[in-house]
Please model this.
Amino acid sequence: MLDVCLLGTGGMMPLPNRWLASLLLRYRGRMLLIDCGEGTQITLRMAGWGFKTIDAILFTHYHADHIAGLPGLLLTIGNSGREEPLTLMGPPGIKKIIEGVTVISPDLPYELRLIELSDIESAETTVGDINLKSIPVDHNLPCLSYCLELKRQGKFDVERAKKLAIPVNDWSSLQKGMPITLEDKTVSPDMVLGEIRKGIKVCYCTDTRPTEDLVEFIKDSDLFICEGMYGNENNLDKAVQKKHMTFSEAGLLAKKGKVKELWLTHYSPSLTNPEEYLEAVRIIFMNTIAGRDLLTKTLNYAN
Model:
């Protein structure tokens, strides 16, 4: 299962009841953070998941409302006793950005490992057991959207394993996708595993205009977390000018991508009551939720 916590739902500036953009994911006790706006470590503490086991921090882009909370968080992670390396990923320019913000958070007790992702084409890597994909989006500076997937192997066939005389002690290796060697043969996982089963897919998208590439990128997501900078359609011209989205545009993306659930986030400071515009977007995509700080969900594998 995968735990998801929307730490901050604001854009541009923090408000008394709304912190800036950030998303936390937890799998098997390890965590991954996307974006780190001002105040992120406050909602991190409120979530109660800890700081020490964050393995990677991903940045969609380097506007302040997505990264200004990083220096303080790095220090807090250091004070938690962490010594193992921490991975930071983002579009081109990450080295310069991290050199700048660590001027006020020097002498960390752990190494920072920087990975620069392409802002021209899609990229794919892994963080622990999570498969991570990124895609460039349409903002006014290099910006990425992310997709995180937990792959799921086929079901282990006990009868086939017995027919192949595979010792029970070797079953777990095959279940993990590793071949084994017996005295008279080599057994590969596909010899005892059924068809690949559906895993878990979560996509996160802020600061962009809707694009056809995004439709394919988010396809069949279990959860799609997408910016809704403006609820009122009268702000469409402003959304186009500033490279953001309205609620209805996010809803149309979710519909085209055939996702299961949509969380809206990254609201304009002027959008004081997102719920007011929710029914209009539900006409387009019914399973839409107006995200709020500390909104949490546990996603499980389908049977």
Observations:
- The chain has ten helices and 16 strands.
- The chain has a mean pLDDT of 93.
- The radius of gyration is 21 Å.
